[in-house]
Task: structure prediction
Amino acid sequence: MNIKTTTFIFSTLLLSAFLSSSCNAQEKGLKDVAQGKFLIGAAVNVNQVKGKDPKCIELLDKHFNSIVAENCMKSEEIHPQENVYNFTEADEFVNFGKKHNMTIIGHCLVWHSQLAKWFCVDKDGKNVSADVLKKRLKDHITTIVTRYKGQIKGWDVVNEAIESDGSWRNSKFYQILGEEFIPLAFQYAHEADPDAELYYNDYGMSDKGRRDSVVKLVKMLKDRGLRIDGVGMQCHVGLDYPEITEFQKSVDAFKAAGVKIMITEMDMSALPTINRGANVADKVEFEKKLNPYPNGLPEDVSAQWNNRMTEFFNLFFKNADVITRVTAWGVIDSDSWKNNWPMRGRVDYPLWFDRNYEPKPFVKDLINK
Ligand code: 9MR
Result:
């Protein structure tokens, strides 16, 4: 072999090694970056589950290893009348998760919002008695959890029962059963599937009042010998709230209370903040000045958004001993509920992938690190 041929073979080998390593780098998804640390989840909607958005499914396969039902398991959808369950979409969701090798999360068994109209009232619209509500809660939880036993890894058992100041939300469940509805819900869920993980899930979890009350709630459930595996920190955040240090304080507090933490509904609005919570009922009228980027996010705002996402992910990785899942509340920007809340018709940029299915810069940075 002459020197020319040797050089040629050597350069070809080098080039193919380079190409294959750069291909591998491109093939890596977020879930690979978080491998061994936490799951990467996404809330999916019925269109995605039905395969109507194939590009979105590609993203799910590449970057995610967990899914949660955005809407189809809420009582209004799955249990619209006392004696009527509608499992079609929830079944499709679970089958989709199994087909795509996802860890499947159920959301949510007890929530004051999107509550089936019949659930807490009698035929005259008056609150039912405590005994009637207990029976309805038990039937609801037992039927749903039993149906998906062994297929759903964990359930958001109770969603959003605590206000920002730490007081109990004055929901119909609370009005009728007091705080007892929470241990009852955890008990019924555990009886229906003893192997399922059980979570309390809420937004605004870095608010001190809510943080302290969630810790008390976890202790109360544990003191009674009930199962609670984790606390879901929804993480619907904005460019100017919450302070990352306050978020860390809540992570520390929940860790000290002896539960796992899941970041369950992450999105970050890039628009001016109107409302710091995530209460679906809080709405305001459309105003043009509060929809400043209808045709795309300016570079400086995008940079600010990506830097702050990186800060959040740094926090997640730093606390990977206790954070077991990080779930985005949707896949691409156009899917997000934030485009319509708290003001209908805004164009927001809150998710990890843009309207063209492209990863945002912070995602690319995480993957190429
Ligand atoms: O993203 C969900 C949106 O499509 C629904 O219209 C709304 C009401 O059911 O719920 C949204 O999801 C909420 C989640 O279930 C609980 N935490 C707050 C989320 C955003 O509102």
In short: Strands lie at 39-44, 66-69, 103-111, 154-159, 197-202, 230-233, 236-237, 260-268, 323-328.
